[in-house]
Backbone:
C-alpha cells in the first residue's frame, strides 16, 4: 500500500508517525497533508534503510544536494565522498545526476549508501545510452526512455525528475517569444530538441499515464521538472516558463487522481522582486503541491558565490511557501563541485530554509535562535558551538582567532557590549 | 561651502558631477537629492585624495567594510592589509573601529591610505582613553567625548557614527520591556551604562547642536547610530528599538535644519518577514534619510556563515530602500576577521546590493546581468570572467576544475544544455 493509499483510507503509516515526531506535528497533520497532496513522503519500497522525510506545507524547509559524475570526472568513489559531505552537513535528500562512467553502478552505490531520499533524472542516462546505441542522442525512442525509468525505479530511486511539461505547444511559445539563454535544463533542452527533430510530442507527456502506473508499484514520487526554467534574470517569469507551469498544474491533478505523490520543480534565475510571485503562482496553479526550487538565483553575475545568491532567493521563496530547496554550490556555472563546495552549498541552503522556518512559525525554529542568543549573552561558547548550524566551522574560527579561549571574542575584546551592560546596567 | 550649502543654492559641485557620472544619473538629480536629504556625499575637506561616493535614493546600493584593531590584535599593519583587501573586493567605504594599540596613528594611517570615505565611532576611543585617564571607562566626561570627536574630524574622518538616540527615556523603555540580548552595540551599551551610572542625559543628545556645529566646518556627515539595534531575532522591532528610531527621526530634521548631511543606521538581527517593515519605518520616520543597515541578519544560529545571513537580509532591505549595507564577515560573532574574511564579506554584500539594484531599476544594473548571460550562452569564458563579480575567484574555480579549458564546464561536460539547444533547436 502506498503512502497516498493509506492516507486516503485514514491510516497512519509508520513513516507518517516517524516524520511527525521529527517535525513536532501530529501524525494526523501529516496524513491529511498527504491526502490533500500538500505533503509528500518520497520513499521507494526498494530503498532499504531509508529514513523517511516529509516535504510540504507546515513542515520544516528541506534541502537537497546534487551529486554525480561527469564525463571528465567519472569515478563513483568521488561522488560517495560528496555524499558523505552532504549528509554530514545536514542534507535531507540527495540527487544523483551522474553523466559519466558506469551510471548503473554509480546510482546503485549512491542508493545503498544513502539513508535519506534519493532522486534522479533518468533522461540523462537515456540520452547517454542512445548515443552509445545509435550514435546520436536524438535517436532515442520513447521506449528507451521508459526502460531507463523502470531501471531507476527498480533500483530504489525515491523520486524522479521528469520534464513532462515541455510539450510541443510550450516549445512553440518559447520559439516565438525568444530568450537570452533559451533552455538551460539539460533534460528540457534535450526533450525540446528531440520534439523539434522528430515532430512528435514529448513521450513523458504523451505517455504520462504509463509513468504514473510505473510509480505506483514502488510508491515512487514524481518531481515534475521545469525544463524551461529561466537561465537568466532577463528570461524569468516569461510566457514559456508559465506555460510549462500551467501544464504541470494539470499533471499534478492527474498524478493525484492516480494516487501518485507529486511535487513540482521551480526556477532558476529570478529577480528578487518576482520570487514571491513565482511561489504564489506555483501554489495556486499546482493546487498546493510541494514546491522544489533550484535557488532561485537573484542575479547572474556572481560565479563563485552562487551558493550565497541561491540562499537569498531560497530564503524568500521558502518564506513564501517553497518547501524544498535544491542547493547551489560555489562551483555552479564553473565546474563540478568538490566535497568542500557541497558542504558550503548545503549550509547556505539550510541557513536560508531556517530563516524562512522562523517566520513561518515552524515548530522549534524560533526556539533554536533564542537558545543561541541566550548562550551568546552568557558568553557560553560551549553551548554556542553545540547550537551552531555548523559546529565544526564554529570551532575552526574560534580556535584560529582566539587561541586562549577568552571569555569575549577578539572582535570586541574587553569592549564587549554584553560585558559592559553586565557591569553597568544591571 | 558644504555640499548641503551648495545644493541649497542650486549649485552643482565637482563632487556631485563626479558621482553623477559614475551612477549614470544627472548632476541635478544628485543636487536635488542632497537638498532634500535623501542623498549624502560624505567627504571631510581634510581627507585628501578622496574619491567622492554618494549614498541614497535612486543610486546604486553601496557597501561598507569594517576594519580595526582590537586589544588582542593591536597592529596597524594588519588593518592596512584588510583595507587593501576590502578596496580590491570593491568596498565603497571603510570604517575604522579600532580599539587596540595606538588609535590615533591607526586612524591616520587608514585615512591616508584610503581613497574612499572613512567612518569611525569616536566613543570607542573616548572609552579607552577614559579608562587610561581615570581607571574606569564610566568616568568619561561629555567634554572628553567631544574632544575625541574633534580629533577625528580634524584628522579627516568623512562620517561619524554617534549614538545620539540612546536617551534616558529610551533606556527606561528598554529596562521595562526586557530583552534576550539587551544591548549589543558597544557604543550604545556604554552610553546606556554611563547614563544609568551618572543619572545624566546622553551628552551626544544633550549637546547635539554642538556636534552639528563641529560637523559643518569640515563638511562631516553624521551617521546616527542605532545603539539599541536588536542583537537577536527575538528582540527585533521592539519598543526599545523603535523608540530610539523616533528620536533619530527628530535628530535627522535638526541636522538638516543646521545644514549637516545625515544618514541613519539600522539593524541588526531581524526576522526575514520584518526586514521590509524596518526599512519602510526608517524611511517614513526619518523623512527619507539614507539608511545604513548592519546586515540585517535573518537568523542567530549560523556563526561562520553570517556573511550569507547578512546578504539575505541585506538584499531584501536594499530592495525595499536601504541604501548602504555594512558588510558582515564569516568571522562575525566569533572573532576579528582576516583579510580573506574581509574579501568574502564585501563580495556577499555587493552581491546582495546588486540583486536589489536590478529590481530597483538602477541604471546599468540589469544590463550587467544580460551581458553575463549572453557570454554564458556563447560559452565565452573570457568574457564571463571579465563580467564576474569576482574575476579572481572565477579563475580559481575554472582552473581547478577545468584544466584543459574545455568549451563547456565539467559540471555538464558534453551534456551542456546550451550546446544541445545550439545543435538541435536552432
Residues:
Amino acid at each position: 500500500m502506498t503512502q497516498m493509499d493509506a492516507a486516503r483510507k485514514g491510516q497512519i503509516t509508520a513513516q507518517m508517525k516517524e516524520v511527525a515526531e521529527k517535525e513536532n506535528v501530529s501524525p494526523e497533520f501529516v496524513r491529511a497533508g498527504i491526502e490533500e497532496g500538500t505533503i509528500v513522503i518520497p520513499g521507494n519500497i526498494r530503498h532499504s534503510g531509508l529514513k523517511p522525510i516529509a516535504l510540504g506545507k507546515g513542515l520544516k524547509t528541506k534541502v537537497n544536494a546534487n551529486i554525480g559524475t561527469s564525463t571528465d570526472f567519472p569515478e563513483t568513489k568521488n561522488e560517495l565522498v560528496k555524499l558523505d559531505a552532504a549528509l554530514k552537513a545536514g542534507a535531507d535528500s540527495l540527487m544523483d545526476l551522474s553523466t559519466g562512467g558506469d551510471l548503473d553502478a554509480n546510482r546503485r552505490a549512491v542508493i545503498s549508501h544513502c539513508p535519506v531520499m534519493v532522486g534522479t533524472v533518468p533522461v540523462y542516462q537515456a540520452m547517454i545510452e542512445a548515443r552509445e546505441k545509435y550514435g546520436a542522442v536524438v535517436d532515442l525512442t520513447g521506449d528507451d526512455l521508459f526502460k531507463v525509468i523502470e531501471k531507476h525505479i527498480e533500483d530504489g530511486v525515491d523520486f524522479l525528475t521528469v520534464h513532462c511539461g515541455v510539450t510541443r505547444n510550450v516549445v512553440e511559445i518559447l520559439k516565438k517569444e525568444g530568450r537570452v539563454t533559451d533552455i538551460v535544463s539539460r533534460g528540457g533542452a534535450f526533450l525540446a530538441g528531440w520534439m523539434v527533430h522528430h515532430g512528435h510530442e514529448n513521450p513523458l507527456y504523451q505517455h504520462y499515464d504509463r509513468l504514473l502506473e510505473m510509480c505506483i508499484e514502488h510508491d515512487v514520487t514524481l518531481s515534475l521538472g521545469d525544463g524551461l526554467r529561466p537561465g537568466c534574470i532577463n528570461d524569468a517569469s516569461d510566457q514559456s516558463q508559465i506555460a510549462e507551469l500551467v501544464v504541470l498544474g494539470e499533471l499534478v491533478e492527474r498524478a493525484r487522481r492516480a494516487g501518485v505523490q507529486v511535487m513540482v520543480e521551480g526556477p532558476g534565475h529570478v529577480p528578487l522582486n518576482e520570487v514571491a510571485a513565482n511561489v504564489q503562482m506555483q501554489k495556486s496553479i499546482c493546487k498546493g503541491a510541494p514546491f522544489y526550487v533550484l535557488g532561485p538565483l537573484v542575479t547572474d553575475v556572481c560565479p563563485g558565490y552562487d551558493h550565497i545568491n541561491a540562499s537569498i532567493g531560497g530564503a524568500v521563496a521558502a518564506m513564501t511557501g517553497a518547501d524544498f530547496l535544491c542547493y547551489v554550490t560555489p562551483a555552479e556555472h564553473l565546474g563540478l563541485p568538490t566535497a568542500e563546495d557541497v558542504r558550503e552549498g548545503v549550509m547556505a541552503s539550510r541557513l536560508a530554509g531556517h530563516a524562512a522556518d522562523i517566520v513561518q512559525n515552524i515548530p522549534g525554529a524560533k526556539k533554536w535562535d533564542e537558545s543561541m542568543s541566550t548562550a551568546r549573552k552568557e558568553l557560553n561558547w560551549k553551548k554556542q558551538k553545540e547550537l551552531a548550524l555548523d559546529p565544526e566551522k564554529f570551532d575552526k574560527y574560534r580556535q584560529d582567532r582566539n587561541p586562549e579561549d577568552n571569555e569575549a571574542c577578539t572582535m570586541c575584546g574587553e569592549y564587549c557590549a554584553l560585558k559592559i551592560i553586565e557591569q553597568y546596567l544591571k
